[in-house]
Amino acid sequence: MRSRLSHLECAACGRTLNADALQTLCPECGLVLFARYDMASLRRAHRDELSARKGRMWRWFEALPVLDPNCVVSLGEGATPLLHAERIGERIGAPRLFTKDESGNPTGSFKARGLSVAVSKAKELGARSLTIPTAGNAGGALAAYAARAGIPADVFMPIDAPITMRREAAYYGARLHLVEGSIADAGQAARKAAGETGAFDVSTLKEPYRVEGKKTMGIELAEQFGWELPDAVVYPTGGGTGIVGMWKAFEEMEALGWIGAKRPKMIVVQAEGCAPIVRAYEEGEPRADAWENPQTNAPGLRVPSAVGDFLILNAVRESGGCAVAVSEEAIAEAEQAMGRYEGVCAAPEGAAALAGYLQLTDNGVIERRESVVVFNTGSGLKIPERLK
Ligand SMILES: *Cc1c(COP(=O)(O)O)cnc(C)c1O
User: Fold this and answer.
1) Cα 218–chain centre separation
2) pLDDT tens-digit profile of 14-49?
3) Three-class SS string for the chain?
4) Does any ligand 1 atom lie closer than 6 A to the CB of residue 137?
5) Does 140 contact ligand 1 (Cβ within 6 A)?
């Protein structure tokens, strides 16, 4: 097994950098760095051989950025089920509705994928301590992987984050810092701490490797659909690594000849009380202004501004997708439907995605006969007070 990582490249200005040191944003323009691979060499790692390997997310080692297999920090993330949402589909006349259920990941959300890769790479590059701002799930995931790597971690979380998420980060031995406000305020505190202590900041899309873990959701989707892609992917979007990672996966897989040119419509779902990407999409803007006073009960969607906003909007527009906001009532209803009809314990964010899908089929923006994957990004068990 040999990773084909070759260098880092700024997704905005195109500047290239060596990938041999800890790196956050582009030193030139301050935007997002992507890992790039030697595609000619990666073509020789055969799709079906990687797919047939034992293991889960790390089956795709060659297309991931860790060079030394001994540095991989894993808790068994990825390879989550694609479930046919047959009973919800039947109720609305949609025979090809699916959910990609990320709730079974270590620490109960898809955040495990990104942090497994980010912590592995940080370990390989010699990070002494790690820090993260989080709405909740990313903090638990960082804490768990950092514990496994033996690297100290500082987690900055809003003071009103769900209690289970606060306790989880502390349980795994991270230093938990509770911050007034939203993840944006937690981000300021984390940056300040990183400046003082030299800790490496693994904020969403501010370091290049979390998105590589999220990329594996796109690879698995193609794999599970027989190396084609569905007509649409509906994703609950906060910082955007999920959408951006999958979009990157599709581009790389096409370049490798793993899939054809067909892309799903990428559909962003946000909450009405915090919908910066939806607003920018509707106004035709390339970037999104920060959302004032973000309010929603879906913690992962309470993200007022995203450094990768231009990448999210780009994926939505290039794919012919769209961005929609859903109400808290619609989220709560969809949350119940996921449990009652599908046996899936939906995180409120996953429920928001289903609510967004239902809204778009009602409006005729998505047709009921289309094959659609709604992502349940995490487990509802992490906010047990919502289960009713
Ligand atoms: C973080 C999170 C999201 C938002 O994901 P992004 O990829 O950062 O947009 C959605 N759902 C859950 C459960 C999350 O923890």
Assistant:
1) 10
2) 999 999 999 999 999 999 999 999 999 999 999 999
3) CCCCEEEEEECCCCCEECCCCCCCCCCCCCCCEEEEECHHHHCCCCHHHHHHCCCCHHHHHHHCCCCCHHHCCCCCCCCCCEEECHHHHHHHCCCCEEEEEHHHCHHHECHHHHHHHHHHHHHHCCCCCEEEECCCHHHHHHHHHHHHHCCCEEEEEECCCCHHHHHHHHHCCCEEEEECCCHHHHHHHHHHHHHHHCCEECCCCCCCCHHHHHHHHHHHHHHHCCCCCCCEEEEECCCCHHHHHHHHHHHHHHHHCCCCCCCCEEEEEEECCECHHHHHHHHCCCCCCCCCCCCCCCHHHCCCCCCCHHHHHHHHHHCCCEEEEECHHHHHHHHHHHHHHHCCCECHHHHHHHHHHHHHHHCCCCCCCCCEEEEECEEHHHCHHHCC
4) yes
5) no
- Residues 253-285 pLDDT 10s: 999 999 999 999 999 999 999 999 999 999 999
Does ligand 1 lie within 6 Å of residue 236's CB atom?
A: yes
Its pTM surpasses 0.90: yes
Q: Determine if ligand 1 sits within 6 Å of the CB of residue 109.
A: yes
What number does the ligand 1 atom closest to the CA of 102 have?
13
For ligand 1, whether the C-beta of 382 sits within 6 Å is: no
CA distance 159 to 302: 13
CA of 44 relative to ligand 1 center, distance in Å: 33
**136 CA: nearest ligand 1 atom:** 15
- Residue linked to tokens 């879906």: 298
How many A from CA of 303 to the centre of ligand 1? 9
